[in-house]
Amino acid sequence: MSILVVADHHDNELAPVTANVVAAAKAIGGDIQVLVAGENCQAAAEAASKLDGVSKVLVADNAVYGHQLAENVAALLAEIGKDFSHLLTAATGVGKNVFPRVAALLDVNQISEIIAVESADTFKRPIYAGNAIATVQSEDAVKVITVRGTSFDPVADTGSAEITALDQATDAGLSSFVGEELVASDRPELTAAGIVVSGGRGVGSAEGFDIIYKLADKLGGAVGASRAAVDAGYVPNDMQVGQTGKIVAPQLYIAAGISGAIQHLAGMKDSKVIVAINKDEEAPIFQVADYGLVADLFEAVPELEGKL
Amino acid sequence: MKVLVPVKRVVDYNVKVRVKADQSDVDLANVKMSMNPFCEIAVEEAVRLKEKGTATEIIAVTIGSKTAQEQLRTAMALGADRSILIETDEAVDSLTAAKLFAKVVEEEQPQIVMMGKQSIDTDNNQTPQMLAGLTGMSQGMFASKIEVEGDKAKVTREIDGGLQTIEVKLPAVLSADLRLNEPRYAKLPNIMKAKKKPLDTKTPADYGVEVASKLKTLKVEPPAERSAGIKVGSVDELVDKLKNEAKVV
Predict the structure, then answer these.
(1) Are B249 and A290 a contacting pair at CB < 8 A?
(2) CA B238 to CA A276: how far, in whole Å?
(3) Is CATH 1.10.3810.10 the classification given to domain A190-307?
(4) Mean pLDDT for each consecutive 10-residue tract of chain B (249 residues)?
(5) Protein fold of B2-245
(6) How far is B183 from chain A (nearest CA, A)?
(7) Which site among B94, B113, B115, B123 would you substitute to test the A interface, given the most A Cβ atoms closer than 10 Å to its Cβ?
(8) Domain A2-165 = CATH 3.30.420.40
(9) Which chain B residue shows the shortest CA-CA distance from A253?
(10) Cβ proximity of B1 and B59 under 8 Å
């Protein structure tokens, strides 16, 4: 078996989740190669070559793959991907956008967001917002798979794979990049952070989130939010933790003023330690919390920040 | 221009699904079914394109059993002009669904196929991208804003860490993310009117597409339960537990 892992990267930096996807590839077993497709992505390719278990890194460094436009990257993947038994990538923005198109071009189904590898053709994946786990088996010649990164422990960066340049370049001429608005932040990326502090509707306002940010900064963690807090306009939507937002699994997850709707729990219940701070002692979040504190978050969160 | 809106009948988002005792699937007997929330957003966007004068005709299409007519009537009550039911009682995977929609695209020649980004039952997030791949159309996925200008559309997309804007050539497949719009409710007179709008019924065989899947579901289980921990009485106790018991700070 030969597995092609398609690297997730941005601004010439390899996304850490790629190491988790390589771990999923190791669980399947076989020769593992990594493809880095983009424009000016040599540093990302070098970082990928250090991932443990990778035998070879393929780099398609060309302007047509800039911003990883789906039509062009999918055409490349459909061309080189047919020689592999498995194509894997992270179930992040780029993977979700590009991989189903690749699957269609290869005339195979895609297995989305796997959380466990049972065998080379059998995988587990959540359905119904994580309320059920399906075990699925694929008979397709090429298994096209996206991986939920938090379900696999990342491989170490102790490897030294050779890097080979690919010279294919197809421009479908169907779409072009116009612009990007990224939220600038010194805090760690939500899905990669070891500690996440999240606020919910109980935080009450955008200003109310100040104490959440302060606690996160004290702990060196990222800030998340529930769907309710996002919908109320307290924080931007890319901070949403939940089935329709980000899936996180940090060492420590602190939920302040979050009731614990199913859709939120689906996004954080795999955290190692969960702390819930909520005024309402009946809040469902306490049913999944390792440590629950029934208290007013506006008193408890600053006090916690002061005492850590 | 024509806008094609594929929609899906799914379990209502307020229903907490339970796994069947024999682990073959989730139990959908006697539960409320509705139009997939992301599909509602797609219908709304199509209706807004028509209200702006960009779209001239909206065609809703679905694949499913006879009962899925309800969702087509809903789409027509919201503003779709006519609809197509591709009737089958079998489970249809994403690739087969995309193949069937590709046939409808071939027949109808829409300039925009407007879809929800994923259905809340199987959570695959695949069919729009697959349809774009099969038809060779451009794609604008996870849209939070769509502006049609001539033979192009400017699409603002939700990506990790922010927003990306791309320009796609029409015809294109676009998929709706949560914040693209807030769908309206169907008004009673429109619900009545929708009953008279045309609804064609076809079968997968009419399109020459075989409903068979190489992806088999072996088992469906409830997720591992996380057991509740303890309540602490004070912040001091919490700090102590985090430092000395959990050792995470």
Answers:
(1) no
(2) 10
(3) no
(4) 98 90 94 96 98 97 98 98 97 97 98 97 97 98 97 94 94 94 95 97 97 95 87 96 93
(5) Rossmann fold (3.40.50)
(6) 15
(7) B123
(8) no
(9) B248
(10) no
